[in-house]
Amino acid sequence: MSDSTMLLALFEDIEPAANGIERLHEMGIADDQMNVISGVPIKDTILGRPSALSHVSRIALTGAILGFLLGAFLIWGTPYLFPLHVGGQPLYPVPQFLIIVFEMTMLGLMGFAFLGMFVDSGFPSYTPKEYVREISDGKIAVLFRCPSGEERKIVDALKKLGAESVNPAEARQL
User: Fold this and answer.
1) Does domain 4-50+127-168 have CATH number 3.30.70.120?
2) Distance CA 24, CA 144 (A)
3) For 35, phi and psi rounded to 5 degrees?
4) CA 39 remoteness from chain centre
5) Helix, strand, or coil here: 61?
6) In the chain, how many H helices and how many E strands?
7) Helix axes 14-26, 151-160, angle to 10 degrees
8) Contact present, 141 and 9 (Cβ < 8 Å)
9) Under a CB-based contact definition with an 8 Å cutoff, are residues 108 and 64 in contact?
10) By Cβ atoms counted within 10 A, which residue in 59, 82, 84, 167 is the most buried?
11) What residue spans define the domains of the chain?
12) Measuring CA to CA, which residue among 123, 124, 120, 122 is closest to residue 56?
C-alpha cells in the first residue's frame, strides 16, 4: 500500500474503540495495518483483535534446558574429569544432583525469560514512535493505515461511532 495515509483515531472509552476497530475491519483494513495505543493494558479479545504472539516461553524453555545441561555437567562432568574418591562416598551423588540441577534449571529459565522479554518487545527501539498526550489521561488511540481515496469515508464512520478526533498521524522522536 504505497498510496496510503496513516490516521490516528482517539476514543474516550473501550466500547467506542472496539466498535471503531470492528468498523475498520468491515471497511477492509486488516489487523496488521492498525495498532491500538493505550495507557493501560487492554486484553486483545475485548477489542476484537487477534492475540499477540510471544516468543518468551520458547526462549525461557531454551534457558531451562541449557541450565539443566549445565547443572548435569557440574555434577557428572566435573567428577568424571577430576575424580576424587572420598571415604566411601559415591562419585556421582544423587541428592546433590537434584538440588544443583533444579537450581541451575531455574536460573537458566529466569535469566532467559528476562532477556526474552526484551528481545520480544523490540527493546531498545531507535525509530520514531507515535505518541499522543491524551493517552496518558486514559484515552485509547487507534493508529491505522488507510487507502488515500477512502480517508473521508473512514473519518466520518469513526466520528459517528464516537471518535473524538481522527487526524493524520506523524511519527515524532520521544
Assistant:
1) yes
2) 9
3) -140, 135
4) 15
5) helix
6) 5, 4
7) 150
8) yes
9) yes
10) 59
11) 4-50+127-168, 56-121
12) 120
Reading across the β-sheet that carries 140-147, which strands appear in turn? 34-38, 140-147, 4-11, 163-168
Tell me if 48 sits within 8 A of 16, measured CB to CB. no
How many other C-beta atoms are found inside a 10 Å radius of the C-beta of residue 14? 15
Q: Whose grid coordinates read 562416598?
A: 89
The one-digit pLDDT tens for each residue of the chain (174 residues) are: 457 788 888 888 888 888 888 888 888 888 888 888 888 877 777 777 777 778 999 999 999 999 999 999 999 999 899 988 888 888 888 999 999 999 999 999 999 999 999 888 877 777 766 567 777 788 888 888 888 888 888 888 888 888 888 888 765 555
Cell of 96: 546433590
